[in-house]
Amino acid sequence: MKIIIPVAGAGTRLRPHTYTQPKPLIPLAGKTIISVIIDQFLEAGCDEFIFIIGYLGEKIKNYINEKYPYIQADFITQEERGGTGHAVFLCKEILHENEEVFIIYGDTVCDFPVQEFIEAPHSILGVKRVDDPRFFGVAELDDNGKVKSVIEKPIIPKSNLALVGIYKIKESKRLFEVMKEGLDSLGPNEEYPLTLAIDEMLKEKIHFEAVNVNNWFDCGKKETLLETNATLLSKVEYSSKEIPFFDNTIIIHPVSIASGCSIENCIIGPNVTIDENSEIGASIISNSIVGSYSKIKNVVLDRSLIGSDAIISGKNQSLNVGDNTELDLS
């Protein structure tokens, strides 16, 4: 089985950060979004991955090759934004005929039993009940609880079961046949979502099981990214266990502080991730993410997302600061 991870999106909801950093590489609880996903599958014994890259794709490729040199990683470039179905279709030539595939979107952080999904005897859609499903793909079930249809971002949803961006496909040969038919019929500048292909398969009575995931975070915007960071830090495997001594500094767990950081006269935490080689002085930081090589002094930050190589000094603010930014708030 190969794991297909589309990571070609521009991440517009996380600007200004994604002007210089692809969304999958944003730090999250001592890792990155993409490494959280990869590590889940490595723990389940899967080491064959296909990454569909696009915007800032070389950064993603370099990161994966450097951090995961031992996995089998193929990279396919999606030259134009043709939708998630188009992105997955580009993998056709790499796969064996009717090889089972697992598709997970590159900004999907979920708490789900990966091994159980992989070993299931049928195709699977990961779902989660949400208050407002209009912004997601939605699965509709019949009276017996079987998946009847799926639709992308319906104006009037017939269900509150949102598709979380996790798909196990057993019938991959038919999937690619359906996608080819759909892509051939597209007009100029139209996109082809993966849900269209799956809905066609459902019309052919191909069995998909809707399986609820425990926790699901859409890491596409600042608020949910910080919420995801806090949730992951609450798990023992993500928070820093041994923190070096920092002069006149109080650490309120859980936190993740990477190597090479210099911190003094601070209160750090709870729910704070600080990436490598950052310098922080005379500051209070809580519920925030700070990128690598940033310099922060004389500020109080809460619910803030700070990019890499940022320089900040001044007073209490809630900030959304991109990479290579200098702010003086004094």
Instruction: Look at the structure and give the mean pLDDT.
Output: 86
CATH class of the largest domain: Alpha Beta
As a whole number of angstroms, the C-alpha radius of gyration is 21 Å
Question: How many distinct folded domains?
Answer: 2
Percent of sequence in beta strands: 25-35%
Distance separating the two termini: 55 Å
Instruction: Provide the helix percentage.
Output: 10-25%
> What is the global morphology?
elongated
What's the story with the biggest beta sheet? 9 strands, mixed
CATH architecture of the largest domain: Alpha-Beta Complex
Name of the CATH homologous superfamily of the largest domain:
Spore Coat Polysaccharide Biosynthesis Protein SpsA, Chain A
The number of distinct β-strands equals 27
Question: In DSSP terms, counting alpha (H) and pi (I) runs of 4 or more, how many helices?
Answer: 7
Secondary structure category: alpha/beta
CATH topology of the largest domain, anyone? Spore Coat Polysaccharide Biosynthesis Protein SpsA, Chain A
List low-pLDDT spans: none
